[in-house]
Write a structure and sequence with these properties.
alpha+beta, two-stranded antiparallel ribbon, 21% strand, elongated
Amino acid sequence: MSLPTQAELFTEIRNFRALKWKRGYCQEHELYKRAGCVNVEDLARAPEPTDADIGFPIETLTVEWGSGCLMVELAALAKMPAAQRNKIYKLGGL
């Protein structure tokens, strides 16, 4: 099993953020469709978000090693306790 590339990880993060933005847009503009006996967001009617809408691109610290990788947003890294940050830095060889 091969590890995902950094580009694939960024694509996955962007798609997740776009989906979250579309759901919020549908709720804000009351765009719903009937699915069985419940209303769900009609994501097809929501426009595609711009990179600015979803806060992309993101600045990250990426650490890769033989059996895995770790990608952390710099904003989230700054909020972490020092002990956790030091473990991440150690993994990256800093």
